[in-house]
Every structure is written in structure tokens, then in C-alpha cells.
Write a structure and sequence with these properties.
alpha/beta, Rossmann fold, OB fold (Dihydrolipoamide Acetyltransferase, E2P)
Length: about 525
């Protein structure tokens, strides 16, 4: 009995030892794992915020892709016009431009403040009206070639707008030619939206009399050496010559083997587009990803590399006929000059109607001052109806264009007009331009009139009549309140107002308002 008890104790000891060994092995295994994970704990802790931020960025990119998909017409069964509307917001109201929200807002505003006079709105041609266009260029993957077009809504993704109904046909042809040239010169990259270098924008302006294009290639580079003069010459060669049979074969081969940098282009758009260039410019504008300006302010950053550097020539054709009818004995047909670094109306056909309205409210015995005058688009076309005219603008390039136009006028008209470079505020405060003048014409940018200009207009020595052309209706309403307030001395009353749709399809209105001192 004692022997069997001893055996039992030995067996229990063995089992205990075996259990302890298993425990120790498990503990050592746990210790190894713990030590390994402990070494990474700090790193993982630091990476928590980073991974959370990365996930948020991933979700944001996903939402952007969904928006872009909508802009790129994934929905089947849409008409061509509906597809274009999704890509190009400027033609959203093209079927009925008078239903645009800003036009409805203007009608409502003048129904309350127009003195009982109806507010009429005029619309010209709804297609082919845009003779000035600025389009973005990007070359970021997955695109094999720089893409020219507009940013998709709520994104920085470019979508092409071939054959836009708003564009003058010559612009559509020129864009196709640019796409072709870029596909044939792969060394010229598109700006990727982040890193310096590459072509970032193209700006196009049509000379209406012969449909020639003034083209600007905007590069995100500091110098021409960065781009390479040989590459620019090669690009110009493909822009200014029709593709020969050899190039067509080469391009077809590229598209077939998938190596083409522009395989996404429609076959009908590139090689068949007829286009003649008035001039081609290179503009250097190195800027960061958050800089939305298309052109820079450095005067030395512009270079005409092909054609005429004087700018496209334009005449307001309807106004010229009116002038000749009133001045049969005088050959007075002002020619305007628009190089790429000065402002030009995108729809000159419709803007002529605005100049016609202005001419109705002028008198040959009145002295006139024009602020925000540009190159003289308005001023040079009203000289036969004023005693004298002082014109000004802050863009230093405008005066040269103005003087060239002035030199082509009859001597009797040249004596009536002078031009000063300076801001509207400077003209009013420092030059006292409003004093002694009978009529003031203003055509400010969308932000409206400067405060100094409003104060000058309301002063006792200011003009008795104000002709206000507004391209920003929100700012116009603010200025209207300041100019007509009963609490201000020298305030104005509204004599006449009408609207002109210069951008049919877009939510935009150009307002012409005539004010007289009370």
C-alpha cells in the first residue's frame, strides 16, 4: 500500500512539472510577443493621427471622383447639350438665358427702385459669341497627354469641352490644334497642379474680321531656358502647319499600340480643324497650387514667338456705321488694339449695343471723364458726341494701345481726348479728374466702384450725370444704395436702366444705368 502511494506521488509530481513547463513555455512566448509589440507601441501611437488623416484624405478623394464622374457624363441617355451643360456651367441657361437667377434678381430690384419704368433685358446670339477664352491645362496622371478644358465642379480635375456652343468656331478649332501639337511634342509637359513647370493655361482671342487667333501659352516656369527653345519652336511648327500624311501615319500607329500621349482625343477634332494664328505668345507665370491667377504682373514675362505683336485689331462695326452716318464728311472709324495683356470684352458683338445706349445720353457741349477705361473701347467710340474726354485706367499696358488708336483718328478728334495711367481712386483723389466735368462714365470690375470714387461723385464739384456699366450686380446694388441715398448730399436719382446678356447661358448680367444729380 505504501508502494502504490509512492507511485501516485511521483505521478503527481511529473504532471505538475509538465504543467509548469507548459506554463513557462507559454509565458516565454507571451514575453517575446509583448517585447516585440512594446517596441512598436510608440510608433503606432504616433501613426494613429497620421492614419486617421490619411483615411480622411482617401474619403475626400473618393467623393471628388464621384463628382468628376457626374461631370464626365457617366449617366447614359443624355443629349449632347445636357452633357455639355454638365461640363460647362457657362451654358447652364442657354435654352432660356432670361431665366438666369441674376437676371430675375435684377428685374425684382428695379421693380422696386426703377421709378415705375420697366427693366428690359436684351440678348444677342446664344451660340458662337465668345471671342475670348482662357482654359486650364493639366498633365497629371492618369492622363497620357496634357488635357485642355475646364475644372469639373468642386474639383481640380480637368474635363474637355470640345465644340463648345458658346465658343467662336475658331476657338474650338484652335483648342483642337493645341491638343494635336501637344500630342506631337511629348517633351512639353502639362502642369501637374502641384510641382513647378509645364504648360498651365491657354488663352485665346479671336480677331473677328478674319477669325484669326491670338494664342497665349502660359507656362509655370521661370525662364524660357527651363522650357527649351527647341521644344517651343517644335510646338509652334505643329501649331502653324497642317499635319502631313507622314505625321498622320505616325499618330495612327501611336494610337494603335497605345503609346499615343493623346489617345483620348476624338479622331475628328485634331487634324481636320482649320485654324489660322494671328500670333502666338509665351507667358511665364511660375506660381503655387493655391494661386488662381492666370497671368502674372511681370512685364518681362511676355514674349511673342510668332506673328504680329501689336494685338488683334477690332472695330465696333455698328458704332462705326452710326458715326459715319452722323459725320459723313469725316472718316472716323476707331480701331482698337488688344494684345493679350490688356482686358477685352469676351462678347464684343453684344457690347456694341451697350455703347449705343451710352451714346444716347451724351451731348456735344459736355465735358466727359471715363474711369476704368481700358484701351478706350467706350471712349474712342463716343468722341463725335462730346466736347472733350479724359480717359484713364490702372493697367500700364493700356496707354500704348490707346495712343496707337488715337494716332489713327482725324486731328480734330485727337485734340479732344487724353489718357492717363492710374487707378480710379488716384484719378479722383490726386488728379481731381471729376471736378468741372459734366458726365462721368464708369465700367468697373465686378467688385464695383471704389469708395473714393463714390465720394468724389457725390461731392459738390462732381459731374451732374453718371453712366454706370456694371458687370457685377451684387456690387451694383450696394453702389446704387450709396449713390441714391436720401441721407447723402449730392445724391443721384435713377433716370434709366436696362440689362444686356453678354454671356448667354451663364448666370450673369451686364447692367447699364443712367443717373442724374437730384
Amino acid at each position: 500500500m505504501f508502494g502504490s502511494g509512492l507511485k501516485l506521488v511521483n505521478y503527481g509530481a511529473k504532471q505538475m512539472a509538465s504543467g509548469m513547463n507548459r506554463y513557462l513555455a507559454a509565458f516565454q512566448d507571451f514575453k517575446k510577443k509583448f517585447n516585440h509589440s512594446a517596441g512598436q507601441t510608440a510608433t503606432e501611437g504616433k501613426a494613429t493621427d497620421s492614419s486617421s488623416s490619411t483615411e480622411k484624405k482617401r474619403q475626400k478623394r473618393k467623393r471628388k471622383r464621384e463628382v468628376v464622374k457626374k461631370a464626365e457624363f457617366v449617366r447614359p441617355g443624355l443629349s449632347p447639350l445636357a452633357k455639355l451643360k454638365q461640363r460647362d456651367p457657362s451654358i447652364k441657361y442657354i435654352r432660356n438665358p432670361l431665366k438666369a437667377p441674376k437676371i430675375l434678381d435684377a428685374k425684382n430690384f428695379f421693380s422696386k427702385h426703377g421709378g415705375g419704368n420697366p427693366f428690359k433685358t436684351f440678348v444677342n446670339a446664344k451660340t458662337g459669341w465668345r471671342t475670348v477664352a482662357k482654359l486650364s491645362v493639366r498633365g497629371k496622371p492618369p492622363h497620357k497627354s496634357p488635357v485642355i478644358g475646364l475644372f469639373a465642379p468642386k474639383s481640380h480635375r480637368i474635363v474637355r469641352i470640345p465644340n463648345s456652343p458658346a465658343h467662336h468656331p475658331a476657338i474650338n478649332s484652335a483648342v483642337a490644334k493645341c491638343e494635336y501639337a501637344l500630342s506631337m511634342v511629348p517633351q512639353v509637359k502639362g502642369y501637374d497642379g502641384e510641382n513647378p513647370g509645364g504648360i498651365s493655361y491657354v488663352a485665346l482671342s479671336v480677331q473677328r474680321k478674319d477669325a484669326k487667333i491670338q494664342l497665349v501659352l502660359v507656362f509655370n516656369n521661370k525662364s524660357l531656358e527651363e522650357i527649351g527653345s527647341k521644344r517651343i519652336k517644335k510646338l509652334i511648327k505643329y501649331l502653324t502647319t497642317e499635319p502631313d500624311a507622314k505625321n498622320k501615319k505616325k499618330k495612327k500607329k501611336r494610337q494603335k499600340d497605345g503609346s499615343s500621349r493623346n489617345a483620348s482625343l476624338p479622331s475628328s477634332s485634331v487634324t481636320r480643324a482649320a485654324c489660322t494664328f494671328h500670333s502666338i505668345w509665351v507667358h511665364l507665370h511660375p506660381c503655387g497650387r493655391h494661386d488662381n491667377s492666370i497671368f502674372g504682373r511681370n512685364e518681362k514675362s511676355w514674349k511673342c514667338v510668332y506673328g504680329n505683336d501689336a494685338g488683334v485689331e477690332e472695330r465696333l462695326r455698328i458704332i462705326s456705321r452710326d458715326i459715319v452716318a452722323k459725320n459723313a464728311k469725316t472718316n472716323y472709324k476707331p480701331t482698337l488694339y488688344f494684345p493679350p495683356f490688356v482686358f477685352r470684352q469676351a462678347n464684343l458683338d453684344a457690347f456694341e449695343n451697350i455703347v449705343r445706349v451710352i451714346r444716347k445720353y451724351l451731348s456735344p457741349d459736355k465735358s466727359v471723364v471715363e474711369l476704368y477705361g481700358g484701351v478706350g473701347t467706350i471712349g474712342l467710340n463716343i468722341l463725335d458726341l462730346v466736347k472733350d474726354l479724359s480717359c484713364s485706367d490702372e493697367n500700364p499696358h493700356n496707354k500704348k494701345c490707346f495712343q496707337r488708336s488715337k494716332s489713327g483718328l482725324p486731328p480734330s478728334f485727337q485734340q479732344k481726348i487724353d489718357y492717363t495711367t492710374g487707378s480710379a481712386s488716384e484719378m479722383v483723389v490726386n488728379k481731381k479728374e471729376l471736378l468741372g466735368k459734366d458726365i462721368c462714365i464708369v465700367d468697373p470690375p465686378r467688385k464695383g466702384l471704389d469708395d473714393d470714387v463714390i465720394e468724389g461723385l457725390l461731392s459738390s464739384g462732381g459731374p451732374r450725370r453718371l453712366i454706370y456699366i456694371s458687370c457685377g450686380f451684387k456690387a451694383f446694388k450696394r453702389d446704387f444704395e450709396a449713390l441714391t441715398s436720401a441721407n447723402r448730399n449730392g445724391s443721384f436719382s435713377l433716370l434709366h436702366a436696362e440689362g444686356h446678356v453678354l454671356f448667354p447661358g451663364a448666370d450673369h448680367l451686364e447692367t447699364v444705368a443712367i443717373f442724374d444729380k437730384k
